[in-house]
Amino acid sequence: MAEKAQKLESYIWEGKDRKGNKSKGELNGSSLSLVKAQLRKQGIIPDKVKKKPKPLFGGSKKITPFDIAMLTRQLATMMKAGVPLVQSFDIVADGLENKGLQELVMSIRNDISSGTSFAGSLRKHPKHFDNLYCNLVDSGEKAGALEKMLDRIALYLEKTELLKKKVKKAMTYPAAIVVVAIIVTAILLVKVVPQFESLFQGFGAELPVFTQMVVRLSDWMQTWWFVVLIGIMGTIFLFKEAKRRSQKFSDFVDKYVLKLPVVGEILDKSAVAKFGRVLSTTFAAGVPLVDALDSVAGATGNAVYRDAIQRIKNDVSSGTQLQASMRQQDVFPVMAVQLTAIGEESGNLDEMLEKVAVHYEAVVDDMVDNLTALMEPMIMAVLGVLVGGLIIAMYLPIFQMGQVVG
Question: CA of 220: how far to CAs of 202, 224, 226, in Å?
Answer without folding.
Answer: 21, 6, 11
